[in-house]
Every structure is written in C-alpha cells, then in structure tokens.
Design goal:
Oligomer: single chain
Number of strands: 18
Radius of gyration: 31 Å
Order of helices and strands: EEEEEEEEHHHHHHEHHEEEEEEHEEEH
Shape: elongated
Number of helices: 10
Largest sheet: 6 strands, mixed
Distance between the termini: 70 Å
Strand content: 15-25%
Structural class: alpha+beta
Strand order of the largest sheet: 9-18-17-16-12-15
C-alpha cells in the first residue's frame, strides 16, 4: 500500500542552517523518480539543486518560491510508489487509501518504517539523508474538497496574510469559508502567483469566494477583490473630504497616491556578506594607506605579452588582474605578515605558508569572493585561466563552497566601476586587502618633465594587530614599484 512521505531540507554542509527556495523544478501532481532534483535553493554559498530520495507523485510544496526554509524543515511531500511500482496519485483508489492510512496513523501513532523496496531508496547521498531509511513521520494528506473525484489530490494550502486596511472580509464582500465549508479549512489556491499577488497587497484569501472549479480562487478573483477594496477606500476618502475642497469648489480632487517603503530581505549570499562585513568591522582594528602609481610600463609589458608570436601557437592573453595577482604574491613573499590571520582564542598571529588569493566579483545575486588556491605557484597564464573560470562560475551561481572559502588575502579591483580609490573592508578572517582603482590618463612628472601617463591608485587595508604601519607601507610601496617597473618581478619568477 502506498504512503505519503515528507521530505525535509537536508543538511547541505559547510555549517549552513537555511536556504531560500529559488524555483520549484516539479509541480504538484508531477511524478518524480528517485534522486530527481525537485527544487533549486540558494544557500549562503551557491545555488543547489536538491534531489528527492523518494519516487512517486508530488502532493504538496511546503514553501513558496522566495521563502526561507530551515535545515530539517518540511520541503515537499510525495505519495510514494506502491509495491507494484504504481504511483499513488495515479491509482483511482490511492487517495482514499492514503487518507485512511493517515487516519489510522493518527489514531495508533507512528508505526515501523516501511521497507526500502516499498518507498524507493536514494542513492544520492547528501548530509542528513541518503540510502538509509528516513525517520518515521506521520503521513500528511490534505483534506479533500467537496466534489473531488477519486484519485484527485488536493493541491492547495493555507495562506494567512495580514490584511491591509479596506482589503479584508468587509471589502471583499464574501462569506469567509475554506474549501471544506468551514473557516478552519484550507484556502483553495493552487497558483503561487495568486498567493504572491494577495500577499503583496495584504489581502486575506479567506475572504474571497473562488470562481474556479470547486471554489478554486483564481487571479481574476483576487484582482476583483483588490478593485473593490480600492473603490471602497476611494469612496471613504471622498465622504471625509470637506465640502470646500470637492470638485465644483475650485479645487481639482485627484486620486490619493500612497507611497510605501520597500524592504529587501538580508538572506542568502547577501545576508552572509552582511554578516561577514559586520563581523570584520566589529573585530578587526583596520587601517588604510594608499599611493598613486604610474602603470604605463605595466600596460606596455602586457601588450608585449599578448602580441602574436612570430612562430608557434598563439599565446594565451594574460589579463591585467592576473598580473596584479602575481604582484601581490611577490609582495606577500617579502611581507608574509599580511598573509596571516589572528587566532583570538589563543591570542596568536598565524602566518600562513600558502597564498590562497581571493578576488571580489560582483554578480546579480550580490558580492562574492572566489578563491584561487595556491596562487603563489601559478604563472600569469595559469592565473588568467583560473580567474576567468571562477568569474564565470560566480556569474552562473555554480561556485562550490570550497571555491568561496579559505582565502588568505584578497585583491579587489573596484576600478571596473570607474572609481579612483576606496577603503575596502577586510574579508574576515584575513589580515589585508589590496584595492585597485581605475587606470586613468593623468599628468605625471617623468625625468623632471611633465608627461601624460596611465596612473592608478592603490590602497591597502590591513589588520593593525598583525603588523604596524612600516610593514603595511613597505608592502604597498613594493606593489607600486612592481607596477611602475614590472621587470622587477623577474626576480621572483
């Protein structure tokens, strides 16, 4: 006999405790296979497709798109396959059997877990679930609305939004009843768009009588209720207007425009960035220094590197960011104090042997800092290729948690935004960050003569606990010297 199983959001690793539903990959009523991805969620690290360990028919979504779900909270319910492999939702008597089974389980308490061959086992193992049997849960089957045929699964849930003034029961002008004819029954809504429309306008869905089959609330029903609420509000405003200000008294009465504040949730990648930036400001006593540098010779060297060779295969173009990365690794080899972190528990400065170079990347989902592992061992060509790969993955939202953690020093090229300078916030728990402004043509003194050169501003923000101003100034001066005279890098190659 089939059973409705509840699938909870599994532990996605890296200490993540919650995720945001980006989009559902399956709809209520769809048939899913074992390990088939059912939902795409956004964690603090990346976008993840979550596979379901059960095979059967999807009976409900526990969260709408855009909602935040905690690890271990219900995500989706599935009517799992019977012993003969027939999905419960496709068997004409399956809904009745599932309802009877739910009633028996509620009366007698949870029984033994079903055998794996009866529910379908998962071979796709995430932290928290996998090939082992899921913990026993009481089946959840929503009540069937009047007139529902045999085998039809209810596909709606409750929506209890807070009504705005004039948009509640009185404005809607309908009797408040659920799908089962009582005020406590579920609201007959299928479309997430209908729920979102009602939620955005503060409309109580229980105050609307649906015009669809079996009282299903459609988008047109919500729009009619909103129009009735607006007309009711406008009529109340007109009645309360003093006679001397109405039309005919020399004053034109226009429609009242209500402006509302907009709230943006701090969650997902944006929320993680906010927490880390706040922690950095609270824990790290940072200081900044900056210097202007003539980058004319560095740009000329890059053009020479990328010029077509006279023979052999074409050279891979080297990016300017890769050259600046090589400058950073050379400077960190001379000033290793800035490639460190502070262990507050033991009150020690931990100088790190490897350079894992982070770089700031702006994406549609917010700021991320991918990490190039062992950057000190890579050539300019290898750095170029790795920076390009990580940048593309960041824009696509496919970076893994390992590619977003473990950095020891960050390079921030904010010059791409057309600004000259900045005092960046250190990427906790690192000890320093180098900022690079735009390269602009400016007057510059060369051999006691005025010339037009390509000038860039470099800024260093550092943790004052790991070093004093002499070390920070020496590091920044060495970076500027390598930018102005790139041949000095040959010493470290």
């Amino acid at each position: 006999m089939g059973e409705v199983r509840e699938f909870a959001l599994p532990d996605l690793g890296e200490g993540l405790t919650e995720a945001t539903v980006v989009r559902w990959l399956v709809a209520v009523g769809d048939t899913v296979r074992v390990d088939e991805p059912v939902v795409e969620v956004e964690t603090a690290k990346a976008l993840v497709e979550v596979p379901c360990p059960y095979a059967g028919v999807v009976t409900s979504h526990a969260a709408e798109e855009g909602a935040e779900v905690a690890v271990g909270a219900p995500l989706v319910t599935v009517a799992v396959s019977a012993a003969d492999g027939t999905p419960v939702g496709r068997d004409p008597d399956a809904a009745g059997r599932a309802t009877d089974a739910a009633g028996r389980a509620e009366r007698s308490g949870p029984g033994p877990a079903p055998e794996p061959e009866h529910v379908g086992g998962s071979g796709n193992v995430l932290v928290g679930y996998g090939t082992a049997q899921a913990p026993g849960r009481r089946p959840r089957v929503a009540p069937r609305p009047p007139g529902a045929g045999a085998g039809e699964e209810p596909r709606y849930g409750a929506d209890r939004g807070t009504p705005a003034p004039g948009t509640g029961r009185a404005a809607a002008g309908h009797t408040v009843r659920g799908a089962n004819g009582s005020a406590d029954g579920p609201v007959p809504v299928i479309s997430p768009l209908v729920r979102r429309l009602a939620r955005e306008h503060g409309l109580e869905l229980r105050g609307i009588a649906g015009s669809g089959p079996d009282g299903l609330i459609l988008r047109a029903d919500v729009e009619r209720a909103l129009q009735a609420a607006r007309e009711s509000t406008a009529a109340g405003t007109q009645e309360s207007t003093p006679p001397g200000t109405r039309e005919g008294a020399g004053t034109t009465q226009g429609p009242a425009v209500r402006r509302e504040e907009r709230r943006i949730p701090l969650r997902g990648m944006r929320g993680t960035a906010a927490e880390r930036l706040s922690r950095s400001r609270a824990e790290i006593p940072d200081a900044s220094c900056w210097v202007d540098a003539d980058a004319t010779e560095l740009l000329a060297a890059r053009r020479e590197m990328n010029a077509a060779p006279a023979h052999g295969r074409p050279a891979t173009p080297v990016s300017l960011l890769a050259l600046l990365g090589r400058v950073c690794t050379a400077a960190l080899a001379r000033f290793p104090e800035l490639n460190s972190t502070v262990d507050t528990g033991t009150r020690e400065i931990v100088v790190l042997p490897e350079v894992h170079l982070g770089f700031a990347a702006q994406t549609d989902r917010g700021l991320v800092v991918p990490v190039v592992r062992d950057a000190h061992t890579l050539s300019a060509e290898q750095l170029t290729a790795e920076l390009a790969r990580l940048t593309e993955a960041a824009r696509a939202g496919t970076l893994t948690p390992a590619e977003l953690t473990g950095g020891t020093f960050t390079l921030n090229n904010y010059g791409v935004f057309g600004v000259d300078g900045s005092t960046p916030i250190i990427n906790h728990p690192e000890a320093a960050m180098l900022g690079v402004g735009r390269i602009a043509r400016k007057p510059w003194v060369v051999d006691d003569e005025l010339a037009v050169r390509s000038v860039v501003q470099l800024s260093l923000t550092f943790d004052h606990r790991v070093c004093d101003g002499g070390v920070a100034g020496g590091f920044l001066r060495h970076v500027a010297d390598c930018v102005e005279h790139p041949a000095r890098l040959l010493r470290t190659l």
